[in-house]
Amino acid sequence: MHWLLFQNIGLLVCFHSFISAFTLETKTLIFDAYYEYVSDRLEWKDAKELCNQRSGALATVSSSVEIQELSSFLSSLKISHPVWIARKVKTHPTSSSETLILEFRGRSDSKHARLLHKFPSMNLVTVCTRLCFDPNSFGISTIFSYSIPSYINEFQLRANLIQGKPVQLALLVHGIHGPYQEAFKHDDSWHSVCVSWSQIGGSWAIFIDGRANSSGNGLNSDKIGPDGLFILGQEQDTFGDSFKKDESFSGSITELHIWDRVLSSSEIDTMEKQCSPISSGLVFKWNGAAMEIATSLTKLWRDVPCQIPGNFKQ
Ligand SMILES: *[C@@H]1O[C@H](CO)[C@@H](O)[C@H](O)[C@H]1NC(C)=O
What we know:
Blueprint: H1 9-14, E1 21-28, E2 33-42, H2 44-53, E3 56-58, H3 64-76, E4 83-84, E5 98-104, E6 113-115, E7 124-133, E8 139-148, E9 151-161, E10 167-173, E11 176-177, E12 181-184, E13 191-198, E14 203-208, E15 211-216, E16 229-232, E17 251-259, H4 265-274, E18 282-284, E19 291-293, E20 298-303
Parallel strand pairs: 1-4
Antiparallel strand pairs: 1-2, 1-3, 5-17, 5-20, 6-16, 6-19, 7-13, 7-17, 8-9, 8-16, 9-10, 10-11, 10-12, 13-14, 14-15, 17-18
Bound molecules: 2-acetamido-2-deoxy-beta-D-glucopyranose.
InterPro entries: C-type_lectin-like/link_sf, ConA-like_dom_sf, CTDL_fold, Neuronal_Pentraxin_Related, PTX_dom
Protein name: Probable G-protein coupled receptor 144
Keywords: Calcium, Disulfide bond, Glycoprotein, Metal-binding, Receptor, Signal
């Protein structure tokens, strides 16, 4: 048996006229992984996409354990013809570990995750996350909502998804809705989004992929209140509850971090290049154990999306 391993695009082009092969898929459960054989003949790119659609990934052979497991899986099915495997993903030198990706598949009034973090009152805040929007979902889409017992719409990041238009993002602080600003193309690619807010003048800023995209002021002049509930993927109509499908998020979220200060544009730029959060002022660090995650969400462990060469910004 032999596998076709494409180390780079050049090789892929060389092999383009070669017969398309069968697809092999790795699916990752929370702590368990298994292979699934898909007997479709596809181009490599389509094979990769198919696995992703089935919330798996093309099988890899990056360690001797994987090679052994894959070999025994294939021989257990008596498969001796070539199958596709994933090409090696370039990992960033400063961080090669995998991260938890929360997949919200389709809009619902239940899929959400809640940060298990005790929030003090905040006069400065920055939230950064990596997002991928479902290209087939439209309307208002809540990335996160923070409510306090005395005020429900205390702090939110919302998107407005209009067919044929870029993703529009807006911040909302204590009921005051900032303007929707076009941010990036509404496709299924990953983007880093940072939002910051300061009580002074109610000034706010949105950064996309490490670059300043929009800013303004007048978003409230009081502190963001303490002891709230920070929920991913749903807008709260009552404290921690009353979610609505037509304001929910569909797509994937990972690497959400919160700082108790306003990060400068050069810090955000640096962070994007280094693909890891700046530690000064970091009060919430992305971590599956620091969240209560609805069982209807799909949890995947993958390399941080900024490590994918196509998405990697120099
Ligand atoms: C923000 O992003 C949009 C969409 O990519 C772009 O058209 C716009 O020029 C950006 N704004 C700034 C200030 O960079």
